[in-house]
Amino acid sequence: MADSKLNTNKARFKPLNKEQRDKCYEAKDLYFKYCNSYEKEDSDDCIKLNEHFAQSCPESWVVHFKELRMREVEYQKRYDEYKKQGYNVE
Questions:
Q1: How does pLDDT run along the chain (90 residues), one tens digit per residue?
Q2: Of 3, 35, 40, 55, which is most buried by a Cβ count within 10 Å?
Q3: Strands, DSSP E only, in the chain?
Q4: What's in the GO CC field (predicted)?
């Protein structure tokens, strides 16, 4: 029974064409360029950019890109912290 659910979900997903992928990546890049700090996330502009990002990309892509960005931010925080403590992080 689980297999039939998997097949149904798979059948509903349509791969994006190049134009749709380009639109998605452009929306993602714009969102992260201007809204990459928690201070800005609640601004009207970032809310609109987030909505545009969510409408331009499949939901699974939005989740993936946001998780990836969170990991990058955490890595940068740790990197900066270690460097501040005098560790050789180069």
A1: 455 454 444 546 689 999 999 999 999 999 998 887 656 677 888 999 999 999 999 999 999 999 999 898 899 899 999 999 988 877
A2: 35
A3: none
A4: mitochondrion
User: Cα(84)–Cα(66) distance, rounded to whole angstroms?
Assistant: 27
Contact 28, 65 (CB under 8 A): yes
End-to-end CA distance of the chain: 52
Distance CA 79, CA 90 (A): 10
**Rounded to whole angstroms, how far apart are CA atoms 80 and 85?**
9
Q: How large is the C-alpha radius of gyration of the chain? A: 18
Name the 3-class secondary structure at 76.
Answer: helix
- The tokens describing 1, both together, are 């029974």
How many other C-beta atoms can be found within 10 angstroms of the C-beta atom of residue 88? 6
CA distance 88 to 82: 8
